[in-house]
## 1
Amino acid sequence: MISLETIEQARERIVKHVSSTPLVRSATLSELVGTQVSLKLEHHQLTGSFKLRGATNAVLQLSQLERDRGVIAASTGNHGRALSYAARAVGSRATICMSRLVPENKVSEIRRLGATVRIVGSSQDDAQQEVERLVAEDGLSMIPPFDHPHVIAGQGTVGLEIAEAMPDVAAVLVPLSGGGLAAGVAATVKAMRPAAKVIGVTMDRGAAMKASIDAGHPVQVTEYCSLADSLGGGIGMQNAWTFPMCKALLDDVVLVNEREIAAGIRHAYEYEREIVEGAGAVGIAALLSGKLAHLKGPVAVVLSGQNIDMTLHRNVINGLDIATEVD
Ligand SMILES: *Cc1c(COP(=O)(O)O)cnc(C)c1O
């Protein structure tokens, strides 16, 4: 488990490098749900997601020698972006390994953030093998996307900001995949506001943490395409940190389907004037779906990221059949 003190230290460490994000009341959601609902606008974070907090906290705890050698990961999504930015900001350098199937816009975005891109093989597994080779041969430090205490503590600073801005918070809705965000936020909120509920929200197809909690141990699930692409992937069969923390600390895990996620993205845009990616919209989606009708407020909903392809976003807003987008 990770203590509140550790998370407070993480905040001190990263404060100069990340934004603290606003928590704003949503009039429309409060009315719809019948209780006060506020949105934690973490999609306004630098690099477009909360992942910068954990990545920055991890890189800042490396020795000078390790920082000089550099950090490495295989993620082309929000973790890869965050690590690229974080490494450069603290005078290190990130190498991001990816397969040659990764689209060019993602490659150039990672390069723009200052990382060295290594294109190897034709699958995520090939990219991961290259990471392991460079760790072994060149002494680079691998920074994982969620299952690492420094990453979890960094993500937990989102919870600090919520508990401080909303002392009477009764429930927090957190997007859930590998569980770094949910574990960190739950550790913080449960320590500061023990009566508050912390609820993970994820997509109904391929929900690895939910299946693992139900089974009592990490399990593998089939992966599907989803509007919430940042929530894809397993939790790791050797999971050491986020699984036990999520299992112990989350009060519930709520699942939302593709149509509900699309409705969440649309609500964010039309009523809140916010552009969020699918993963960032699952909390709103859960509220709109009626699956949390029993919830007592004040409720804080974490909008975790904004990195959605803008053509896809337009299509979702225009109500195009999203099945054709994700299947
Ligand atoms: C990574 C990510 C998540 C899930 O975070 P975990 O720590 O893996 O549970 C949610 N939303 C966005 C936008 C993300 O990038």
## 2
Amino acid sequence: MSYSIEKIASLLGVEIYGGREGSVSFLLTDSRSLCFPEETLFFSLRTERGDGHNYISELYARGVRFFVVEELPCEWEKLYSQASFLKVSSSKRALQRLAACHRDEFHIPVVGVTGSNGKTVVKEWLYQLLSLSKRVTRSPRSYNSQIGVPLSVWLLNEQTQVGIFEAGISKKGEMEVLRNIIKPTIGVLTSLGDAHQENFVSMEEKCREKLRLFTDVDALVYPYDDKLIRSCVDTFSFKGKRLGWSVKDTSVSLFIKDIKKSELSTTITYIWTQEKEDSYTIPFIDDASIDDSITCLALCLYLGIKKEVLKARMPLLEPVAMRLEVKEGQRGCTLINDSYNSDINSLDIALDFMNRRPDHKGRKRTLVLSDILQSAEDDEALYRRVASLAEKRGVEKFVGIGETLICHRKAFDNIKDRCFFATVGGFLSSNAFRQMHDEVILLKGARCFGFEQLTEMLVNKVHETVLEVNLNAIVDNLNWYRSLMKPQTKLVCMIKADAYGAGSVEIAKTLQDHRVDYLAVAVADEGVTLRKNGITNNVMIMNPEMSSFKTLFDFDLEPEVYSFRLLEALIKAAEKEGITGFPVHIKIDTGMHRLGFDPVKDIDELIHRLQKQSAIIPRSVFSHFVGSDSDSFDDFSSQQFALFKQGADKLQGAFPHKILFHMDNSAGIEHFPYRQMDMCRLGLGLYGINPRSNKCFNTISELKTTILQIRSVPKGDTVGYSRKGVISHDSMIAAIPIGYADGLNRHLGNRRGYCLVNGKKAEYVGNICMDVAMIDVTGIDCKEGDQVEIFGKNLPVTVLSDILDTIPYEVLTNVSNRVKRVYFQD
Ligand SMILES: *Cc1c(COP(=O)(O)O)cnc(C)c1O
């Protein structure tokens, strides 16, 4: 649906500055996601860190003409002569208000889903259950925030027959806003957990806040057996129907009479509003899935879906995979595997992800897509939209798989390189498949097409041991540290040592996308790798080698300079190349006594030397705390800081341009916020470990492997080299394909350390070998092929470093290169 800009101005109650012509179909809040500039309205949002107004000139250059702004300097009307500006007092509120007006155009059932867990699964399953008979519009992925909800609601269109939207809140007052946008006619409360509890005084307050979404609904589905929810719903004044479900109380709307689990499925017998009992089966056996299916059942029955229909559809429910994974593939390819439901909105999000990740030159961006199922949209229009999205988001090669895509192949005529196959098998046996090389491939297939076969063929044969890295967690950690910093303070992200073991290239892509000011690596080669992979961010080299200067200049990598010897050599090399004004970072030694200029003795000579030449200029000056992680060094830290200031101020005094001062590392950002100065350097904290408490607060990586073989070993036998693993009673011993060559420290052997098998501790028995280790799984329910966690969410890496009497930095950076890194976002 589109709106004229005049109509939007009148809905928002504001005037238009500039042109009054044109119409808007897309709303944009993140300039990086632009796709259809001509029909896009950009909302310049101001957050603590960023200001959307800064992107107006870039967006204007890319063809955007419609802007919602909070300020309008008079020169803009000249500067952007073809633009239309809507000036409002808050862009965020304008976005919310516009979405609310759009919502008012629809007189259809709209389901609002909230709760601490299960929102997304319930939303997706409702979609799976309803979309065969109705046209459903729903929130893409988990767009449930103050910005995500208006963007979701905007997707409602003329064809929509049912809307399903998720609402998520983290503090009081937010739900009211979301209610006014979603205006649900039916409510679903899934469960209450303790996520985001910090902003509420009690669980009851949180429950009541969530219920605010439902003040005007006709009916509310909720778990009656949860006492707190029941009492809040009971005392909550609303006129709609209360559709509680219970396994205990027969008087509720939906009584669950029986739940029978078998090995792979669960059959649930229920009585709906005192009618005759019936049952259905789902292909899941975990309690969360069972609860979520019951919630969906209640809602579908209320909407009038027939019991027989539900009985037929429930067994077909598919797991909701939220993951989008990045893996190294064969023949120079990278795979982006998005297992999330295949529909156009999630396709767009995945395409945006691919498009926004920089890449080295020459690699094609390829989309392999199956037929989009469960869409009630007219196929022709759907595939035309798919093709135009793919094109706009930079897809250069298209592989369509499925009969429907073959029928609509003409829609893809604008993509030069394209081919179509009825099945994955057909594609696998084609030349097109054999000739794939050096491409970034986005795989997006509906489950029934069996894209696993394709992934298996394309991925490098993975050693069973992998390090899984969660890119969202990196972003969360980045934002957490940013929230401790003043908005104007710049940030260096330390991605030396292959990003503390996580893999510097993919981490750098994510950080660049989130606009950090600098990336820092140890040596020039690491910087070159980043550049070759498309990283354009400022890059700092902490330990430049004398032999690498030419590389630094060629790839625009800014070295740290810590000694006169290095300084002289660098100046000489730069002069030889005819370079002027190359930025460098001056390190001052304030007590670490590792590298750096002496802030008292060396500084005059340093200034003198820098002033005498013009090949390089000091971009920043910095020093490093010896002990910001411990209070016991606070006095020493103060001394260090004073020394730094003395030297740095003197340096700055000698130059007219601004020189950035920085000293805080992760622990410093937290412990010495008043010492942030111009910039901070974030290391370990980015990876989810708090150096001050030595605790993992948000793990980003998990080292995992699988059981190769299990055997019983009788009492008295020994396990492993040198007969070290003496077995004192009959035991079950499993072998796992990870050894000290993978970075599993040998000192964890002989029962000093353990890993987790199905959540249970399994000690390392005997000496750890080069490629294999043996663990004691006696009494643990497990089989060959089961997953083993070496460290991760359930076994923090700090547990390992404590046992080894070292620091988590060492354990993380020891994970060897042969362990494949798999990146995902959820
Ligand atoms: C590694 C490093 C950091 C980051 O330290 P963390 O303790 O990991 O935050 C900061 N500054 C310099 C100079 C470093 O070498």
